[in-house]
Amino acid sequence: MSETQRPERGDAGIAAVVLAAGKGTRMKSDLPKVLHPLAGRAMIDHLLDTLAALSPGRVVVVIGPGMESVGEAVAPHACVIQDLQHGTGHAVAQARAALADFAGDVMVLYGDTPLITADTLHGMVARRRAADSPAVVVLGFRPADAGEYGRLVVGDSGGLEAIVEYRDADAAVRAIDLCNSGVMAIDGAALFGLLDRIDNANARGEYYLTDIVAMARSDGRVCAAIEAAESELLGVNSRSDLAQAEAVMQDRLRARAMAEGATLIDPATTWFSFDTRLGRDVTVGPNVVFGPGVIVGDEVQIRPFSHLEGARIADRAQIGPFARLRPGADVGEAARIGNFVEAKAAIVEAGAKVNHLTYIGDARIGAGANIGAGTITCNYDGFSKHTTDIGAGAFIGSNAALVAPVVIGDGAVVGAGSVISSDVPGDGLAITRAPQKILDDGAARLRRRLAAAKG
Ligand code: UD1
Ligand code: CA
Known about the structure:
CATH architecture of the largest domain: Alpha-Beta Complex
CATH superfamily of the largest domain: Spore Coat Polysaccharide Biosynthesis Protein SpsA, Chain A
Bound molecules: uridine-diphosphate-N-acetylglucosamine, calcium ion
Number of helices: 9
Largest sheet: 19 strands, parallel
Number of strands: 33
Helix content: 10-25%
Radius of gyration: 31 Å
């Protein structure tokens, strides 16, 4: 077992057990299901991030054998391995040693149900701590299609009496539309005693966590159900579910960006990463994709069809349309990156313009410099990457090839079409193209010769 003991942090009265041992067969993937990303981050990391709002003193993630990669992803949280998947009750029982001396509130969550909100988790803890002290608080929902979810049986007094799995339910129970999300808040002092008493005498031959409700009731304890929206409780079992979860996540990120003062011209076509940060009065045109690690200042314009990742953009810069900013692109104040420009590991200082059809990689473009259309920094020689340094106010003519390593001084000019392979001093002018030749009437003579040859 890879379980490790750690000093408690946060709220010592809350522990969480996250179930993630299921194989996720229907994903048809070599990647454990809970590591599939939503908005650029593994589902389980979204869940752990939401959980952090409760500051649980302990978090135990239950994984299956061969899922070391999940263990690494959730570190520094503890993992326990459930060797065989004998059901959700058996899975929670794997946390027994990690929670041996714990008597607070135990939250149970599923790693493949990552859209739950912090508000809902707070609501569950509050209900657990209410005066009637329910032994188990279950989060229910009313999905459009109740399908094969477990059903919550609520008594006349409004208390939760039992959870019945679909396969074990009769027609009357199947007609109940209040379903079990799987998320629970449980009295930690009672949990493992209840788990000791569940059996696997059911349609699937599994140890059902859900059975602890009827058991706690038979001990005379109160149990309770609270409800959340279906969109929070979407479980990911297939690639199609993953796409649905991504849609929910994107809608939240879009709503947040707009609430924080960005204009999205067509929100449905703006794709965010979980960590995208936009300043105020940013305008994002249609069909813009933010990969991980993008930080945008105030009053920036990002025009349609731009793709950005790992980039930093300062106030009032203009990007696109059709720009590609790759990791390490650092665009200065009021600088411009225009159409069909790719930038990677490139610092573009304030007011510089790189407006058309250009690749800048491993480069610095000084303040106010102007980079002509079609300029390429030739940063790679097939073995190593080299840098191009362009000084402030330099002017690079169109279609220049700057063969790195090379330094172009402040205020230098490079003639269009030049191949620059040695440094250009400040205020120098470099031009490498062949001199132009004019043959008077040459075009007419060429046409006559070609026509004659054709007959
Ligand atoms: C479970 C609930 C059902 C509920 C549904 C909501 C039980 C018995 N049933 O059913 O009432 O409506 O979730 O989605 O709890 N897992 C383990 N180890 C195991 C078994 C499961 O870690 O041995 C994990 C899975 O990875 C998954 C979660 O527990 O994240 C739920 O397991 P799953 O088999 O999908 O439960 P359901 O049959 O869908
Ligand atoms: Ca499931």
